[in-house]
Write a structure and sequence with these properties.
- 28% of the residues lie in helices and 25% in strands.
- By secondary structure, the protein is α/β, with parallel strands linked by helices.
- The protein folds into three domains: 8-21 and 32-219, Rossmann fold (3-Layer(aba) Sandwich); 310-397 and 423-444, 3-Layer(aba) Sandwich (Rossmann fold); 448-546, GMP Synthetase, Chain A, domain 3, CATH 3.30.300.30.
- Strands 12, 13, 14, 15, 16, 17, 18, 20, 21, 22 and 23 form an eleven-stranded mixed sheet that branches. It has a five-stranded parallel sheet with strand order 4-3-5-6-7, with helices on both faces. A four-stranded mixed sheet has the order 2-1-11-10.
Length: 550
C-alpha cells in the first residue's frame, strides 16, 4: 500500500470478509455488504463510463488543487447516500456533501465552488436543480433518486436504480488511491462554505476507523481490516440520527463499516422524530447512538422520559460537533444509567481531536477533553506548541491534516501553517492546555465577542443560560454597541408555557459566568434555527440580534 488506504477498497475488503452481514437497514430495506458492494459497482461503472475520474495525480498538484472530477451528494439519509459516496471513490470521482436545506442561491454557490461535474440528488430537489442547472456549465451527469415526491426525471437525468447494473467500461476501471480526495464542505454557519480537501488515507486513519479503537497504531494492511471485521463477530449496530451530509456521520459510518457493523436509519428522514428514532433503536437493538448537541439530545431524552422503550442493548450515546450541556447530559444518565456518554470534539479541518466520557456518578468536567496524540495548543502567533499549564492559545492538529481548501490558496496557507517544519491545522478554535494535559475548549474565535476589551466565548454563555429550566434552546451572538464596541445578545427559545422573565434568565447566567459575560439583551424567538445536523446558525442569529424591536 504505497499510497495508503482508500475508502472504496476498505468497503470492498469488508464486503469480501463478511459478505452476508447487514451493512444498512432503512424501512423495508436490509442490505448486506455483498449486495451493497454490487450496487456500488454499478454506479461506479456508470460514472467511469461517462468519462469522469481522476485526470491529474496528487504529486503534481498544490494542496488547494484537485485533479479529480467531483460528484455532489444532494441527498437525505438512505442507502443511496452511502452507495454513491463509495461509488465515487471507486471511480476516482471525489464525492462531496450538499446541504439539502440550501435555497437556489446557496446551492448555486456551492456547486459552482465545487466545480461540480456530476450530481446525485433526491427527486424532491429536482425543481431546485432545474432552476440553476443552466448556470452550471460543468455539470454533465445527473442521477435522480426516486422518492415520495413523485417528481419526474429532469431532462437528461437518469434514474438511480436504472444504472446500478451498468457493466464495467471496456477499458476497465481505475485503481483507487489513498491519495484520492475526501472532500468535506464546512457548514457555512459563520461564513461561506469551504471545501476541505483530505487524502482518503489521512481521514480514514485519523477519524474513520483506520486506527482501531483504543490504540494509536493504524491497521497495517487491507487484510488486517478484513480479519478485524471477521473477528468482530457481527460488529456493532449504530442508529444514525445525524444526516450523512454531516462529516461526523460519515466518520461514524466508516467506523462501523471497518468493524463489519450495521448502520440503521430511522424511517422518517424528512425531520428528526425522536419517537421514530427510539422505536428503530429498540427494534434493531442499537448499541450506539450519535447525537449532535442539545438540539438532538434534548428531544431524545424527553421522549425516553415520557415513553417506555427497552434500550437495554444501548451502550453509548456519542455527542459531537455541537455542545451538549451538563443538564441534558445528566438527564440522559438519569434516564439511562447503564450507558456512557462520550463527548467528542473536532472539525472538518482536523478530524477527531479529543473526547471525554461520562458515566452515572462519574461525570466529566464541562468542555474539558482528553486529546488524541496529534492534538495540541499553539501560541497566539502560530510560532510554537504550548506546554501543559502554559494557558490559552489556538487548538491545533498536527500530523495527518488536510491538504487545503479547494481553490483557495491564501486561506489554505492561513489555516494549515507550518511551524518548525511541520504542517498544522488551526481552523480557529480557542483552547487552554491544562496542567494535566487535558484541553479546555473555549470556542470558535470567529463567533467570539470582544466586548470592552474582554473576550466572551459564546458557547460558555450559552451553557450558562441553558442551565435555566425554562430555556429550551439558546444561541449567543455579538451586536454593535456604542459603549462596548460589541455586546452579547442571547437568542432564546423557551419551553412551551414557560414564565421566566428576562431578569430571571440573566440572573441564571450570572450564577455561572462573570458579570461582563452576561448578555446585555434577550431576544425571544419561537424556534432557534439550526442546521439539519444541529449546529447553531450564527448568521441567522445575528440577524435576530440586530433587527428593530417591536
Amino acid at each position: 500500500m504505497q499510497d495508503g488506504f482508500n475508502l472504496s477498497t476498505v468497503f470492498a475488503t469488508v464486503a469480501r470478509a463478511v459478505p452476508d452481514q447487514e451493512v444498512l437497514v432503512w424501512r423495508d430495506r436490509r442490505l448486506t455488504y455483498a449486495a451493497m458492494d454490487a450496487r456500488v459497482d454499478g454506479l461506479a461503472h456508470y460514472l467511469a463510463a461517462a468519462g469522469l475520474g481522476s485526470h491529474v495525480e496528487r504529486d503534481r498538484l498544490a494542496g488547494h488543487e484537485s485533479g479529480q472530477d467531483h460528484v455532489g451528494l444532494y441527498l437525505r439519509n438512505g442507502n443511496e447516500y452511502l452507495e454513491a459516496m463509495v461509488a465515487g471513490y471507486r471511480a476516482r470521482v471525489a464525492p462531496f456533501n450538499v446541504n439539502y436545506r440550501y435555497v437556489e442561491d446557496e446551492l448555486l454557490y456551492l456547486l459552482t465552488d465545487a466545480r461540480t461535474r456530476a450530481l446525485v440528488y433526491h427527486a424532491e430537489f429536482a425543481p431546485t436543480v432545474a432552476a440553476i442547472r443552466d448556470r452550471l456549465p460543468d455539470l454533465a451527469v445527473l442521477v435522480q433518486v426516486a422518492d415520495e415526491s413523485g417528481n419526474d426525471l429532469l431532462p437528461g437525468a437518469v434514474d438511480y436504480e436504472s444504472v446500478l447494473d451498468t457493466p464495467a467500461p471496456a477499458g476497465g476501471m481505475p485503481v483507487p488511491s489513498g491519495d484520492d480526495l475526501f472532500i468535506l464542505y464546512t457548514g457555512g454557519t459563520t461564513g461561506m462554505p469551504k471545501g476541505v480537501l483530505w487524502r482518503n488515507d489521512d481521514i480514514y486513519v485519523t477519524s474513520m476507523g483506520g486506527t482501531p479503537f483504543g490504540t494509536d497504531e493504524p491497521f497495517t494492511s487491507y487484510d488486517a481490516i478484513g480479519e478485524a471485521a471477521v473477528a468482530a463477530n457481527g460488529g456493532m449496530t449504530v442508529l444514525m440520527i445525524p444526516p450523512f451530509m454531516h462529516g461526523a456521520a460519515q466518520w461514524s459510518t466508516f467506523h462501523m463499516i471497518t468493524g463489519g457493523g450495521k448502520i440503521v436509519i430511522a424511517d422518517n428522514v424528512q425531520r428528526f422524530d425522536p419517537a421514530d428514532a427510539l422505536r428503530t433503536a429498540v427494534r434493531e437493538k442499537a448499541v450506539s447512538m450519535p447525537v449532535v448537541g442539545d438540539a438532538v439530545a434534548l428531544p431524545l431524552v424527553e421522549e425516553i422520559e415520557r415513553g417506555s422503550y427497552d434500550l437495554s442493548a444501548l451502550a453509548a450515546i456519542n455527542n459531537g460537533s455541537a455542545p451538549l450541556t451538563p443538564g441534558v447530559r445528566d438527564r440522559i444518565l438519569a434516564a439511562l444509567p447503564h450507558v456512557i456518554v462520550m463527548d467528542a470534539a473536532g472539525a472538518s479541518e482536523t478530524g477527531l481531536q479529543m473526547s471525554s466520557i461520562s458515566l452515572k456518578g462519574m461525570e466529566a468536567d464541562t468542555a474539558t477533553f482528553a486529546p488524541v496524540e496529534a492534538t495540541t495548543v499553539v501560541d497566539d502567533l502560530f510560532t510554537r506548541v504550548l506546554a501543559p499549564g502554559e494557558g490559552g492559545g489556538w487548538l491545533a492538529q498536527r500530523g495527518r491534516v488536510p491538504l487545503g481548501y479547494l481553490g483557495d490558496e491564501a486561506k489554505s496557507a492561513r489555516t494549515f501553517p507550518v511551524i518548525d517544519g511541520e504542517r498544522f491545522s488551526i481552523p480557529g478554535d480557542r483552547a487552554t492546555l491544562l496542567d494535566d494535559g487535558r484541553i479546555e475548549l473555549l470556542g470558535r474565535d470567529g463567533v467570539t465577542i470582544n466586548s470592552g476589551g474582554e473576550k466572551i466565548f459564546v458557547e460558555e454563555v450559552e451553557r450558562a443560560l441553558a442551565a435555566h429550566p425554562d430555556v429550551r434552546d439558546v444561541v449567543v451572538v455579538g451586536r454593535p454597541s456604542e459603549r462596548w464596541g460589541s455586546e452579547a445578545v442571547a437568542i432564546v427559545q423557551l419551553e412551551a408555557g414557560a414564565t421566566a422573565t428576562d431578569d430571571d434568565l440573566l440572573a441564571e447566567a450570572g450564577r455561572h459566568v462573570a458579570r461582563y459575560k452576561v448578555p446585555k439583551a434577550i431576544v425571544r424567538v419561537e424556534s432557534v434555527q439550526r442546521s439539519p445536523s444541529g449546529k447553531a446558525d450564527y448568521r441567522w442569529a445575528k440577524t435576530q440580534a440586530v433587527q428593530p424591536v417591536g
